[in-house]
């Protein structure tokens, strides 16, 4: 598999488009999951929606990662610590990461309606902010 550095400009453009669309599509699932009271699954999808968006941004800027921790670290290093994006986005991403892990793997833990209702607008903010940056990159790199 090619790394973002090895991709052609068109390949990178196509993957970034795919990832950001996947982030939006996944975000669209969450309200239905909450309505069905699938709170752990809703938290999982919130995290993955943000993960796909963060991956899109990292790929756009040729940042290579190999794991979920790698995405979290490189997102913070490249975009938060440099001041390109606000610090609270890193906190949102970290919180969603922890909630997803707890919901998926911890015994005797369940996300609640309160926790997902608190997290959902934060996930939406994360996606909106990243999408704006990705959209700007896409506009600057569209060869059509």
The total of helices stands at 5
Low confidence ranges: none
Q: What about the largest sheet? A: none
Q: What proportion of the residues is helical, as a percent range?
A: over 70%
Share in β-strands: under 5%
The total strand number stands at 0
The H-and-E topology, N to C, reads as: HHHHH
CATH class: Mainly Alpha
How many independent structural domains?
1
Span between N and C termini?
26 Å
Q: What is the approximate shape?
A: globular
CATH homologous superfamily label: Nucleotidyltransferases  domain 2
CATH level 3 topology: Four Helix Bundle (Hemerythrin (Met), subunit A)
Round the Cα radius of gyration to an integer and report it: 15 Å
The residue-averaged pLDDT reads 94
CATH architecture: Up-down Bundle
**What structural class is derived from the secondary structure elements?**
mainly alpha
Q: What does this protein structure show overall?
A:
The protein has 144 residues and is mainly α. It has five helices and no strands. Helix 1 packs antiparallel against helix 2 (39-60), helix 2 runs parallel beside helix 5 and helix 4 (87-105) crosses helix 5 (113-141).
């Amino acid at each position: 598999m090619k790394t973002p550095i090895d991709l052609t400009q068109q390949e990178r453009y196509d993957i970034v488009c795919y990832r950001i669309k996947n982030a939006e599509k996944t975000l669209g699932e969450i309200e239905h999951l909450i309505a069905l009271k699938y709170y752990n699954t809703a938290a999982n999808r919130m995290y993955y929606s943000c993960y796909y968006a963060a991956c899109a941004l990292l790929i756009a800027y040729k940042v290579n990662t190999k794991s979920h921790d790698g995405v979290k670290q490189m997102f913070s290093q490249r975009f938060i610590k440099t001041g390109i994006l606000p610090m609270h986005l890193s906190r949102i991403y970290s919180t969603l990461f922890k909630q997803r892990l707890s919901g998926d793997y911890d015994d005797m833990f369940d996300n609640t309606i309160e926790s997902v209702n608190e997290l959902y607008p934060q996930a939406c903010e994360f996606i909106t902010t990243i999408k704006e940056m990705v959209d700007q990159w896409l506009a600057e790199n569209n060869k059509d």
